[in-house]
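### Sample
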Amino acid sequence: MKFPLARPRRLRASKIIRDAIAETWLDPGDFIYPIFVKPAGGREPIPSMPGQYRWPVGEELVRHVEESLSLGVNKVILFGVVPDEVKDAVGSPGYDPHGVVSRAIRLLKETFGDRLLVFADVCLCEYTDHGHCGVVRQKGGRWYVDNDETVKLYAREAVVYADAGADFVAPSGMMDGQVAEIRKALDAHGFHEVGIMAYSAKYASAFYGPFRVAAASAPKFGDRRTYQMDPRNAYEALKEVSMDLEEGADIVMVKPALAYLDVIRLVKTHYPWAPLAAYNVSGEYSMVKAAASQGYIDERIVTLEILTAIKRAGADVILTYHALDAARWLREGTPF
């Protein structure tokens, strides 16, 4: 059908019409809110991520999560921040049963119970003195991350978080076989009901910079390109997702989100039955904040447009630092 019989603008003539036929809708229930937790003190602003804080395990954290729930954001993922003096070569603070993330999980689950779904990131970069995501070895004068020793520590960390009350553990280190090792360990300890959200297609991206400042997790030498994915590859993500699903992942993830919308769509097209998360990462967040602070963009409209695009590409849930602001703005209605 051609013009003048076909006039697509008729369906854009008013907001009521546009809302009636919209294909994609955002809801606060779509969001997983990342929270940085630290052992003690007061809340601490994160310079690289305006509006974000490191929260002490205590009443301030509880009040912040209460605010999240009041806005309809009922899922959080926790990242630990610890002082440099307690870090070591094997990241032992990460799997300490009395560590910061375990304490935060216990506090939140005891306070909110099933009103709040708690995800715990499983990695070692926040806890190693070298900043890499696993156990570093030397061979022939070159360093490398020992895959098989690292996944054993991930499994240990996952069991600690499950024992603290986490609903999901989220391995993010991109080690081969990490999901299988964690699933085996969880089941062996009776945590059959604890789910795994796997960072299945996590790219070696420059968009993680503000996070590494927030979590003090930048590598002291080298980079992470030997274990995170090459940004030039899309179909490789299908192999990684397939392996994680076979190993027992309950949710798979693409990270980052905005620069990898094609990968989100590719994964969802090939695995439409698999719940898919996408991580709207720190660099994506901070760029919006920086541009908005200069008056270059409308933060509200741009943020909701980005999150809508991520969901439209195929994400079922979105990890985003914008979660609370976006939830407030959605109460006002969509700006489109």
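The chain is about 35% helix and 20% strand. This sample (Delta-aminolevulinic acid dehydratase) is used throughout the tutorial notebook.
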